[in-house]
Amino acid sequence: MRTPVQTLRAFLPRLFAAACMALAAGCASPPEAVARDYPARPEVRAFMEALAERHAFDPSALDEIFARVRRSDAAIRLMTPAPPTVKRSWKVYRSRFIDDTRISAGVRFWREHEDVVARASKRYGVPEEIIVAIIGVETVFGRITGDHRVIDVLTTLAFDYPRRADYFRSELEQYLLLTRSEGLDPLSVRGSYAGAIGLPQFMPGSIRRWAVDFDGDGRIDLRESPADAIGSVANFLAEHGWVAGEPIRYAARIADPDRLSPLIEAGITPVFTIESLRDYGVTSRDPVSFDTKLALIDLPNGDEAPDFWLGAKNFYVITRYNRSSFYASAVIELAEALRDAIGR
Predict the structure, then answer these.
(1) Any idea where the domains of the chain sit in the sequence?
(2) Angle at the Cα of 173 (from 238 to 164), degrees rounded to 5?
(3) Is it the case that residue 23 has pLDDT exceeding 60?
(4) Would you give the DSSP letter of residue 266?
(5) Which position among 32, 128, 129, 138 bears the catalytic label?
(6) Alpha-carbon torsion 276, 306, 266, 294, what sign?
(7) β strands within 86-202, DSSP E
(8) Are the CB atoms for 129 and 118 separated by under 8 Å?
(9) Measured between alpha carbons, how far is 281 from 55 in angstroms, rounded to an integer?
(10) Most buried among 90, 184, 289, 331, by the most CB within 10 A?
């Protein structure tokens, strides 16, 4: 019979071998960095050929770029919607964006860039607090801008995520045009799991259409220039129809929640007047002009009663940035908290 010491000595080599195997596994490429031979795939080759024909890209340069792309399983996982059995909760969502830490960071950011924020608000007609709040919701004022290689996630979502492949192929094309025009290495830029870039998390197409050089240095840099980010957010909202001086939403009064289905199914585009909403038992707690177009905004709270608001044109404009009523509501409520905190 072995002594305990002999048993331990006999077991140690196996333990060491197991530890080495575990270490080797830990050092292997993670699932979100799986190599894929994208240039060998017919649909990718067709995409590259179209780029070369439409935009005079060098085919050999495209080959070299796509040969170094890595599939991002993380992007697919994070883009996949939650199953319908998951109950959405506005209260839970809100708690992620409106807290003391983010409000304190927002006050510091606003004060540090006060002149730039004021200039952007005056030029584009968007309230200062809304501009600041969008950057706060998107990246905690530049603290969290994403560490995914943009070329990886856009290529993955363009060719391995059928649900939105057309959109991401367009964004991949815009990204390659952007990096070429800006003289950037397309393999070096990092952003979100969806390919959004910089403090305001603009997609490449949005950068090319709506980003502005607001610090006057002759280039647009949403990753390093808070001024460019501030001006670009304000310009984006203005270009999407922001109405200066108009309310964003009104508090709704609901007489009978069981009558709201047609209004909810109509979506977030403001098409109803306050008079037409009365037919469904919906009124406003605040004065509303008779010709103001509104949408019923319902914010589910899991098993609890939902919150209801009446969204006007400016509410809809915020959803052009991110097409979610939860998102727009978080921007509005963070903006209100920041305005109160800074004393405006």
Answers:
(1) 249-311
(2) 80
(3) no
(4) T
(5) 138
(6) positive
(7) 148-149, 190-191
(8) no
(9) 55
(10) 331
Could you tell me which of 117, 138, 114, 136 has the C-alpha nearest to residue 127?
Answer: 117
**Percentage of residues of the chain with pLDDT beyond 90:** 87
Q: Packing angle between helix 313-321 and helix 226-239, nearest 10 degrees?
A: 130
Residue 106, CA atoms < 13 Å, CB-side half-sphere: 32
User: What are the two backbone dihedrals, phi and then psi, of residue 257, each rounded to the nearest 5 degrees?
Assistant: -60, -25
Give the global pTM: 0.88
Each residue's pLDDT tens digit, 31-52: 445 557 999 999 999 999 999 9
Binned at pLDDT 50, 70 and 90, residue 146 comes out as very high
Residue tagged 């697919």 (tokens):
76
What is the chain's percent helix, strand, coil content, to nearest 5? 55, 10, 35
Rg (CA), the chain: 25
> Quick check: is 138 catalytic?
yes
| Residue 240 contacts residue 261 (beta carbons within 8 Å) | no
* CB atoms closer than 10 angstroms to residue 28: 8
Per-residue model confidence (pLDDT) at position 84 = 83
Nearest to 202 by CA among 238, 184, 178, 180: 178
